[in-house]
């Protein structure tokens, strides 16, 4: 028997686990991928604010999920002595920097109307952390087995949503990357044709 477990607070664990799972699940499986999708495909001057609002709500839920997770970890003596809590802490801390990267990207983009180093950092940093967050949800469910925090229904719901939204997000990333490569190849071919036709804008030779 683990003497570090706070047995008097064990009745609180199921409620904490539910709150933690719902908050983190909505943040990483729904809102963060949805925000990434909207900024990419919604053609509106308000897209940036829709994206920011979506991510902000997810960010708040993530912090709430962190708080409930820490409380539950202390009760069960599973705070930073397992893969789920360690990876979760790293992901949350890393995501605290994401709004700053997004703001720097936006400032530079407004001035140049072109992608920049902050654009690529913000986009890929976010994509990696979303994937790690979804994976960590599975690690959390595995960790919860044989504890008062475990819920078969919660496991099934998370698996379904993570499979659907996670698969959609992965497919979206692959689509965007492939489309970017095709666009770059088309640009290179266009540049070669322009050089062969001459140096002028209208294709005339010197």
From TrEMBL:
Top-level lineage group: Eukaryota
GO cellular component terms, semicolon-separated: membrane
Keyword tags: Electron transport, Membrane, Transmembrane, Transmembrane helix, Transport
Domain (Cytochrome b561): residue spans on this chain: 1-181
Chief location category: membrane
Transmembrane segments: 21-42, 48-70, 82-104, 124-144, 156-178
CDD domains found in the cross-reference section: Cyt_b561_FRRS1_like (cd08760)
Cell compartments where the protein resides: Membrane
InterPro entries assigned: Cyt_b561/ferric_Rdtase_TM
Gene3D superfamilies for the chain: 1.20.120.1770
PANTHER family attached to this UniProt entry: CYTOCHROME B561 DOMAIN-CONTAINING PROTEIN-RELATED, DEHYDROGENASE, PUTATIVE (AFU_ORTHOLOGUE AFUA_8G05805)-RELATED
UniProt name for this protein: Cytochrome b561 domain-containing protein
């Amino acid at each position: 028997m683990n003497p570090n477990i706070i047995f008097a607070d064990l009745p609180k664990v199921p409620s904490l686990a539910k709150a933690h799972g719902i908050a983190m699940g909505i943040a990483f499986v729904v809102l963060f991928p949805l925000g990434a999708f909207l900024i990419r495909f919604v053609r509106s001057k308000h897209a940036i604010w829709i994206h920011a609002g979506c991510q902000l709500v997810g960010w708040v839920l993530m912090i709430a999920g962190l708080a409930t997770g820490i409380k539950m970890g202390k009760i069960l003596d599973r705070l930073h002595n397992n893969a789920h809590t360690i990876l979760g802490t790293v992901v949350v801390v890393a995501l605290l920097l994401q709004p700053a990267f997004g703001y720097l990207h936006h400032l530079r983009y407004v001035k140049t109307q072109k992608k920049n180093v902050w654009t690529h950092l913000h986009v890929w940093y976010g994509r990696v952390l979303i994937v790690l967050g979804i994976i960590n949800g599975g690690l959390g469910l595995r960790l919860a087995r044989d504890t008062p925090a475990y819920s078969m229904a919660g496991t099934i719901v998370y698996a379904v949503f993570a499979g659907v939204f996670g698969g959609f997000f992965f497919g979206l990333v692959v689509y965007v990357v492939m489309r970017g490569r095709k666009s770059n190849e088309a640009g290179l071919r266009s540049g070669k044709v322009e050089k062969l036709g001459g140096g002028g804008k209208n294709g005339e030779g010197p």
